[in-house]
Write a structure and sequence with these properties.
CATH superfamily of chain B: Cytochrome c oxidase-like, subunit I domain
Shape of chain C: flat
Oligomer: heterotrimer
Distance between the termini of chain B: 19 Å
Chains: A mainly alpha (about 210), B mainly alpha (about 600), C mainly alpha (about 90)
Mean pLDDT of chain C: 88
Largest sheet of chain C: none
Mean pLDDT of chain B: 92
CATH class of chain B: Mainly Alpha
Strand content of chain C: under 5%
Number of domains of chain B: 1
Strand content of chain B: under 5%
């Protein structure tokens, strides 16, 4: 632990924010992610509750949704978590090139996920699976569409924001902003990214498989 | 040497002793990252909304006290609100909705959390600023436009939201019944944006308190104001996202045509109530807990005694926060929900009275045999305790489901909520403002005016709200435009008129506070760093503190309530004063100097 | 605080596990197992995957116990919300 005593009585910069063992930006991101857990709880919880209450207004996932396509997409997102972790590991070892390449890979996979999801939305919409009551023609009822687009839409929005954040981090990495001693930015964007993947793992199961 | 560094990519903030670049006006006072400036911005914004919310209440009271008569000056308002000065029924619905909304979201919440969180936390923990100053700035600059959106909703066609601050579906999901379309949508959008502001603030406060405490400031040496804001921040962090989800669903039901709360297509109106109150109950504890923390500070200071049972005070706040998640159904006893849930919520609601009661006993224990200085902050703090007791007792009645059958949605509830929100939170806010005003504005508020304001407010406040218990038990429902159309309520007009007149006097009396507030800012009225002879770290700094707060990192040696320590020279002992008799002992986090 | 310069957690092994679990989930989902069993299996597998991601990719395993406590906080709240509200129906 760095010394605090040496700073007593001496004009000092803010002391090392290490008292609880987790540096400040990382702690801030973890705390923020907890609020995101509650947000997705509201959305996914609504789906679970309404589906339990009024199953007739829904349909079996396979009837409307493409489980196979989304399974592949899920795999894509899991891969992007691996590339993210490799990016951070590269930075920890001072491998700047590896950092940039793995970040790029993560961005590509993340964008791919969003792209496939947009493609999926297009086809579902075409099949009459929409969130709007008036134009709903698929199996089940408009409530199914409402809840589906709410959950997956907000998840997709979070992935998109993550892609932008990763691009920003990549940009900074190209300017050499990160070192093994200054890796907070990469670590926290990584945490956000893994969280988004984690939510999808749960979401995919609940929406597509159950 | 650990590879994951303890430093971050962000520059560590310099303390006041270091050089600071001179900032242009706009960076110093408008888009400032200094927590003290941001706190002050929140202060002015919230006080404005407090006043506006009060004016809305006056119009409600006018209609109830002088039904269908023209309000003096009412012709100034548009005909969609008060044609000929007479309140329209539709506008009355907006009045009760917006009074609640403005007071809760734009007055009390930002006053307690945005103002005192920002002003106090970095100072009381010994930091140069918040953990994330830019995020802090963003927090205010999201709250402000949210407020503007809410104000704008008054001006659109159909008027402002009129489905109650609780916006129950399906009343709120379509304008069919309230006549309000865009106004309700703006309401939803405004609160959604405000949610971002609150969550950002919560992240900042939590991180600052965990990670940026000065050496020696262990958890059980943190002043109760900061403790209460810490716990409140957790409630905000975890509850507001639920509201956000619910708001999105309601907004999309209204605009896109989704069916979350539309029964015909499998939606469930009761789901809105569950989601709303799952947020809503922690929300009301967000509205009271910081005031409890402030009350502890001013009472200990006024009584010149340590807070009685400091540790149990902390544990009580934590218990209240924990229990607040499992009582929400008590707002729904009459909603038609599963009666078994009614039983469960009744029990949990009665349980939550216990930690609150512990706090009340501890405040009384703090005052008991104290060397009491009846300064204005102490008076407001004592009023908090007494009025919170009343509000808490009425709460016990409501907690009993069978009793609630009679009093739900009556003026008994209105009395209860105003005893805890006005008698509690607002008096706590007055205590906090009068106590910390000297620290942030450099001059102390006038004591005579302060006591006058306090006395008149306290008496008039009780004249307004105490009779409402009786009105409620006799069956006067809330949110009624014209209660006197019902025979059994017709002879409640005299009491309502009495309440209304008291209310008009009450708001006029607040002028004394406003005058005192601005008058005490004049340059000739300077005070030193510690006019109240208090112990926490903010009182060691100049009034107002400079950018960066401390000249050097403070070190803490004791808790914040060392008042009237036997054998000490003074009746207070600041947290950072080194112990005198022994050679300076290193604090828990210090290592011996090399 | 444990140093970060331990041997890296086996990222690729975890990836393999995650991929396998995902495949298993899809198989169970598409199978004709009785609904309650399928649901129980699916929930178990997906929460296990989530925990793996949190422990190893989000590094929770190597953080302080206090951070574990923090990260755990929402889960009782989620259970309370869903288990209570579902009683209505």
């Amino acid at each position: 632990m760095t010394s605090h005593a040496a700073t007593v009585g001496v004009p000092a910069r803010q002391h090392e924010p290490e008292l609880e063992g987790v540096y400040t930006v990382k702690l801030g991101m973890w705390v923020f992610l907890l609020s995101e857990v509650m947000f997705f709880t509201a959305l996914i919880g609504t789906y679970v509750i309404l589906r339990f209450a009024n199953p007739d207004h829904f349909a079996e996932p396979g009837e409307v949704l493409s489980i196979e396509l989304t399974a592949i997409n899920t795999f894509v997102l899991i891969c992007s978590s691996v590339t993210m972790v490799k990016a951070f590991a590269a930075l920890q070892q001072g491998d700047q090139k590896g950092l940039k390449l793995w970040l790029l890979a993560t961005i590509a996979l993340g964008s791919g996920f969003v792209g496939v999801q947009a493609y999926e939305y297009y086809h579902l919409w075409h099949d009459g699976f929409v969130p709007v009551a008036e134009i709903y023609t698929a199996e089940g009822g408009p409530l199914y569409g409402s809840t589906f687009y709410l959950m997956t839409g907000f998840h997709g929005a979070h992935v998109t924001i993550g892609v932008f954040a990763l691009a920003f981090v990549l940009f900074k990495a190209m300017r050499g902003s990160y070192t093994p001693q200054k890796l907070g930015g990469v670590e926290v964007v990584g945490l956000y990214w893994h969280f988004v993947d984690l939510v999808w793992i749960v979401l995919f199961t609940i929406v597509y498989l159950i | 040497m650990s590879v994951t560094a303890t430093k971050t990519d962000f520059d560590l903030l310099p303390y006041a002793g270091e050089q600071h670049e001179e900032l242009p006006f706009i960076r110093k006072y408008i888009f400032s990252t200094d927590h003290k400036v941001i706190g002050t911005q929140f202060l002015f914004m919230s006080l404005f909304f407090l006043l506006l919310g009060g004016m809305l209440a006056m119009m409600i009271r006018w209609q109830l006290g002088f039904p269908a008569q023209p309000i003096p000056g009412g012709e100034l308002l548009p005909d969609t609100m008060t044609p000929g000065g007479i309140v329209l029924p539709e506008f009355y619905n907006s009045l009760v909705t917006m009074h609640g909304t403005l007071m809760i979201f734009f007055a009390i919440m930002p006053l307690l959390v945005g103002v005192f969180g920002n002003l106090l936390i970095p100072l009381q923990v010994g930091a140069a600023d918040m953990a994330f100053p830019k995020l802090n700035m963003a927090s205010f600059w999201m709250a402000f436009p949210a407020g503007l959106l809410m104000l704008a909703s008054f001006t659109v066609e159909g008027g402002a939201a009129a489905a109650g601050w609780t916006a129950y579906a399906p009343l709120s999901s379509s304008g069919e019944w309230t006549g309000v379309y865009l106004g309700q949508q703006l309401w939803l959008a405004s609160l959604f944006i405000l949610g971002f502001s609150s969550i950002a603030g919560a992240v900042n406060y939590i991180t600052t308190i965990i990670n940026m405490r000065a050496p020696g400031l262990t958890w059980f040496r943190i002043p109760l104001a900061t403790w209460s804001l810490f716990i409140t921040s957790w409630l905000i962090l975890l509850a507001m996202p639920i509201l956000a989800g619910a708001l999105i669903m309601l907004l999309s039901d209204q605009t896109i045509g989704t069916t979350f709360f539309v029964p015909e297509t499998g939606g469930e109106p009761l789901l809105w109530q569950h989601l709303f109150w799952y947020f809503g109950h922690p929300e009301v504890y967000i509205l009271i807990v910081p005031a409890m923390g402030i009350t502890s500070e001013v009472i200990a200071n006024g009584a010149r005694k340590p807070v009685f049972g400091y540790k149990s005070m902390v544990l009580a706040i934590i218990s209240i926060a924990f229990l607040s998640w499992i009582v929400w159904g008590h707002h729904m006893f009459m909603s038609g929900m599963n009666p078994m849930l009614g039983n469960a919520f009744m029990i949990t609601t009665m349980l939550i009275a216990v930690p609150s009661a512990i706090k009340v006993f501890n405040w009384l224990g703090t005052i008991w045999k104290g060397n009491i200085h009846f300064h204005t902050p102490f008076l407001h703090g004592a009023a908090f305790v007494s009025l919170f007791i009343v509000g808490g007792l009425s709460g016990i009645f409501m907690a009993a489901t069978p009793v609630d059958i009679q009093i739900h949605d009556t003026y008994f509830i209105v009395a209860h909520l105003h005893y805890v929100l006005f008698g509690g939170s607002l008096f706590g806010i007055f205590a906090g403002i009068t106590f910390w005003y000297p620290k942030f504005f450099g001059g102390i508020m006038n004591e005579s005016l302060g006591k006058l304001h306090f006395g008149l407010t306290f008496v008039l406040y009780n004249l307004v709200f105490f009779p409402m218990h009786s009105l409620g038990v006799q069956g006067m429902m809330r949110r009624l435009y014209d209660p006197y159309q019902y025979d059994y309520l017709a002879d409640m007009l005299p009491l309502n008129r009495f309440i209304s007149i008291s209310a008009f006097l009450l708001i006029v009396v607040q002028l004394i506070f406003i005058v005192n507030f601005f008058m005490s800012m004049r340059r000739s009225n300077k005070c030193g760093p510690n006019p109240w002879r208090a112990n926490s770290l903010e009182w060691t700094l100049p009034s107002p503190p400079p950018h960066g707060n401390f000249q050097e990192m403070p070190v803490v040696y004791r808790g914040p309530y060392e008042y009237s320590v036997p054998g000490a020279e003074e009746d207070f002992l600041p947290q950072n004063e080194p112990p005198k008799d022994v050679e300076r002992v290193p604090g828990p986090f210090e290592q011996p100097a090399d | 605080m444990s140093t970060e310069e331990h041997t890296h957690p086996p990222y690729m092994k975890i990836f393999g596990l995650l991929a396998a679990m995902m495949g298993l989930k899809v198989l169970v989902g598409l199978s004709s197992l009785p609904k309650p069993i399928a649901v129980a299996l699916l929930i178990t597998i997906s929460f296990s995957s989530a925990i793996l991601v949190a422990m190893y990719y989000m590094h929770l395993r190597f953080e302080t116990k206090k951070l574990w406590l923090l990260a755990f906080i929402p889960f009782p709240l989620i259970a309370i919300l869903i288990l209570t509200v579902i009683q209505e129906w």
